[in-house]
Structures are given as structure tokens and as C-alpha cells.
Amino acid sequence: MRTRRSLMSAALVVALVAPVLSAACGKTVGGTIDDATITTRVKTALLNAPDVVGASIDVNTTTGVVTLSGIVKSQGEADKAVQIARGIGGVKDVKSTLQIKP
User: Fold this and answer.
1) CA atoms of 100 and 13, how far apart (whole Å)
2) What is the pLDDT of residue 5?
3) What distance in Å separates the CA atoms of residue 43 and residue 88, rounded to the nearest whole number?
4) What's the rounded Cα separation, in Å, for the pair 76 and 54?
5) Which sign, positive or negative, has the C-alpha torsion 29, 34, 63, 52?
6) What was the pLDDT predicted at 60?
7) What is the pLDDT at residue 9?
8) Is the distance from CB of 56 to CB of 98 less than 8 angstroms?
9) Which pLDDT value is given to residue 13?
10) Which helix or strand (DSSP H or E) is residue 99 part of?
């Protein structure tokens, strides 16, 4: 009787936890931490770059792919932001949806 209850409890736990784990969109905890670290490093590098001072750039990272969005003053500023992001360790690719508004 005890064994049956234990099995039923284990099955219930699996049934409740599985959807939550699969809802992470295929990301692992390590992958999420790595993406957050990459995002932080890119943001820090952009903030410290004199070539993109005053730019309003948002950074999002998913499985090592960095997406830059926001507003920059020139194409040169956009290119520099992409170059900076590509230079960060762990970045697999950089996508830019930066808009130029002088």
C-alpha cells in the first residue's frame, strides 16, 4: 500500500512539474544564466564605448544570439554597436534592428 502511494505521489509530482519545465522554451538554467551574462557584458561594453555615447540601445540575448534594438544617431554608431557586441565572449551572432535618427 505504501509503495503504491509513493508511486502515485511521484507520478503526480512529475505530471505537475513537467509542463513547468517544458515552458522554459527549450532554455536550460545554464543557458539562461549564460544569456543574462552575455546581455550584461554587452550592455556594459556599450555604456563604456565612447563611439556610442548617448545611444538608446536595448540588448536581448537568446541562446547566444544578441539582438540590438533602439535608436542611434548614425550608421557608424550602429555599426560600432554591432562590432562591440560581436567582440563579447559567448556571442554566437548579432542581429540589429537599430534605427537611425540624427
Assistant:
1) 51
2) 57
3) 10
4) 14
5) positive
6) 97
7) 53
8) no
9) 47
10) strand 93-100
Cα(81)–Cα(75) distance, rounded to whole angstroms?
10
Considering the four listed CATH numbers 3.30.70.260, 3.40.50.450, 3.40.720.10, 3.30.1340.30, the one that applies to the domain covering 27-100 is 3.30.1340.30
Grid coordinates in use for 43?
A: 550592455
Residue with cell 550602429: 78
Residue 21 host element (H or E) = helix 2-22
Decide: 55 and 71 in contact? Cβ < 8 Å.
Answer: yes
Give the cell for residue 31: 543557458
Q: Residue-wise pLDDT tens for the chain (102 aa)?
A: 555 555 555 544 444 444 444 445 555 666 667 999 999 999 999 999 998 877 889 999 999 999 999 999 999 999 999 999 999 999 999 999 999 998
Question: Cβ(81)–Cβ(75) under 8 Å?
Answer: no
User: Cβ distance 97 to 85 under 8 Å?
Assistant: no
